[in-house]
Amino acid sequence: MNEQTERIKTKISQLKKLDKDYILFGSQNHRYRLNPIISLERLQQFEFVNKIVLPKDYVAFLANIGNGGVGPFYGLEPLEDSLFDDLDYKRPESLLNPSKPFLHTNPWNLEFNPNVDDESEEYETQLSDFEEKYFGKDLMNGTIAICNFGCGVNLNLVVNGREYGNIWTDDRGSDNGIHPSSELGNTYRIGFLNWYELWLDNSMNEINSKFSVTDTTTIETKQIEMGRKKPWWKFW
To answer: Are 192 and 58 in contact (CB under 8 A)?
Structure first.
């Protein structure tokens, strides 16, 4: 694990040098900065208060690399914000409960199928009941929020339950339910450090491909062309 954390540090530095103009998605938000590391004592206190044991690879990142900052999409959340169930609107009264087991082992979703006309009062009642069930906070028990994908979508690390150590996506904000994270192109369950390093590798491949210019192509021209290409993280 020490070898991987050192490799990740090197790759962060390399990516920062490659993307001096903050071309990659999210880079203007985090600007390749890392928050200060966390002491083991503080991590143990967080675990004690929330009755969990954090995955070792996540602890290794927090204690040796940084407590949030540069990372996939809009960057990594600091540990102190990881209990918010909505990373777009961080409300102290609306928190995750990591002390209870995560319920899912397979992708989960529901569809709203009313049995009345959409202009009736009963329709609104059924919609309200559906939304209360669909967006229930208990569906993300056993996780902490580590990354804001945007558009109301969070990436969460499972810290309690059979999927312990894996990253899952709370995609209910886009009506896509809750599912194992695959935003980086992985087709397998993925833990924190492997997920983070995959993002680094994807990002370096993307920036290198954008600036693989020929003698007759200027950097400025290449930057203009980039706007016409869909990056690896964008699915719409």
So the answer is: yes
Q: What is the pTM of this model?
A: 0.86
- Calpha distance 81→87 (Å, rounded): 8
What tokens were used for 43?
A: 């991590």
- Sign of torsion over alpha carbons 103, 142, 183, 149: positive
Q: What angle do CA 88, 72, 34 make, to 5 degrees?
A: 90
Each residue's pLDDT expressed in tens, for the chain with a length of 236 residues: 789 999 999 999 999 999 999 999 999 999 999 999 999 999 999 999 999 999 999 999 999 999 999 999 999 999 999 999 999 999 999 999 999 999 999 999 999 988 888 888 899 999 999 999 999 999 999 999 999 998 889 999 999 999 999 999 999 999 999 999 999 999 999 999 999 999 999 999 999 887 764 333 444 444 444 444 445 444 44
| C-alpha span between 1 and 32 (Å, rounded) | 22
Q: How far is residue 26's CA from residue 70's CA, in Å, rounded to a whole number?
A: 9
User: 3-state DSSP helix/strand/coil percent for the chain, to nearest 5?
Assistant: 40, 10, 50
Which 8-state DSSP code applies to residue 95? Answer: B
Nearest CA-CA partner of 54 in 99, 84, 86: 99
